[in-house]
Amino acid sequence: MSGLQINLGPVKEPLGFIKVLEWIFAIFAFATCGGYSGKTSLILNCYNGTNASLQANFAYPFRLHQSSFDIPSSKQCHSIWNSTYYLVGDFASPAQFFVTFAVFVFLYCMAALVLYVGYLHLYRGTGKLPMIDFVITVVVSFLWLVSTSAWAKALTDIKTSTGHSITELQPCVSQTNRCQFNDIRSLGSLNVSVVIGFLNLILWAGNAWFVYKETNLHNPPAAAPPTPGNPPPHSGM
């Protein structure tokens, strides 16, 4: 039969259990990166000893060049900070690649689990589905490496652009010690997203072996028995 046949056995096996873990870690990957919003701030030393705290808000997808600092409210600072100044850098491409890929992995894991639990008889009854699953698993493993590495590099640059380098803006370098770096909201969830990305790589690379065992490459189909009406010829003396 080709209809739905619920069988929770695969979830108890490495094939399905690891897929559940991959589904969960994919959620953590796009949630920790795509849901981030933060801010960085500096203290501007104005005339007559007046100080102004200025901050710039930034969030996913980290187009920092569109994140501007506040305009100081003190009139003593207007002659120094007399324009709109932005953070430096555009890191949308690696961030969106990482998040979008994690979402697609999340959806694929759901589809694979439905196949394992409801249509295992079809999955193991043909050699095509396991082979397709194996190829996708290998490709996903490679893309986790690429996307996480690109995002890790982008996160390093984000830390630089939102850290002490903000004191290098034009109003800050016109005179010595005019600006002081104040504070930045924790980037902990972004660090976690990188760790989870590499954990996903390990999970998918390890799962490739268990998917491979389901293919005909590991278990070739048994040879057909000889037809009774055509016995094999006897060798001559």
From TrEMBL:
One of its GO terms (cellular component) is synaptic vesicle membrane. The chain crosses the membrane at residues 20-38, 97-119, 131-152, 190-212. The keyword Ribosomal protein does not apply. Its main location: membrane. The keyword DNA repair does not apply. It is a multi-pass membrane protein. Keywords: Glycoprotein, Membrane, Transmembrane, Transmembrane helix. It is found in: Membrane. Residues 10-216 form the MARVEL domain. It holds the Pfam family MARVEL. Belongs to the synaptophysin/synaptobrevin family. This is Synaptophysin-like protein 1. It comes from Podarcis muralis.
